Amino acid sequence: MQCDPVSNEMAGTKPRSREVFFAAWEGHFANPTINSRVIEIKATENGIAANEIAGSISCFQADGRDCVGYWIAKAHWGKRFASRALELFLKEEPRRPLFATTASTNTASRRILEKCGFRLTGFRMGEETERYVAREIAEFELA
Fold this sequence. Notes:
Elements: H1 5-11, H2 18-30, E1 35-45, E2 48-62, E3 65-72, H3 81-92, E4 98-103, H4 107-115, E5 119-126, E6 135-142
Antiparallel strand pairs: 1-2, 2-3, 4-6, 5-6
């Protein structure tokens, strides 16, 4: 799901190889300071109910701050899964303040953060890295 070109364009990210993706997540699960969750939804196909992975959400340290990030598979956009996952995650994650960023053009993610109590604190230009493209970033804080 993280290789989808439309998702990466919206998020301002560069896709990672399968090996890099799984190595990063192994590191997340091994690090006690990172709270990572898989977002599962109940799906029905041919009348059979099953759980389906719809995305991920985590709290992690970046630049000395506790940050929240999430990713939802494109097939599940617009169905409130990101909002619901963030609402539930914030109930279990005690750290505050929490920070989040999104591409300034990602209006859906901006709405989700604001709906969940994050306050827009400003904008900055994000630099190009091996993971991100250079673009304007909206910064948020949850006190």
